[in-house]
What we know:
With 85 residues, the protein is mainly alpha-helical. The protein has helices at 3-14, 21-26, 38-52, 69-84. It has one domain: Non-ribosomal Peptide Synthetase Peptidyl Carrier Protein, Chain A. The longest helix is centred in the C-terminal third of the chain and has 16 residues, at 69-84.
Amino acid sequence: MELITKIKASIVEATDGNLTIEDVERVGDNIHQLGLDSLAQIKIIVLLEEEYDIEIDVEKISQEVLNSISSLCQFIEKEFEKASV
Length: 85
């Protein structure tokens, strides 16, 4: 599954079904507009850690990274590269 698609699916899963994939796609890249609380944001990170077998220090993630799909995608790709080395 493509990383962007997995991030979108993780957002839906992290909100326990309160959002649909259509909701996520409607805001485009700006996931900040979804109004995710900190618990949902942490759930997204945990789901992506499990999916890509990486470990992410949540204290090192800036709010800007969690505000858009593209920045979150870039962050995950960098973490995946670090883990692969």
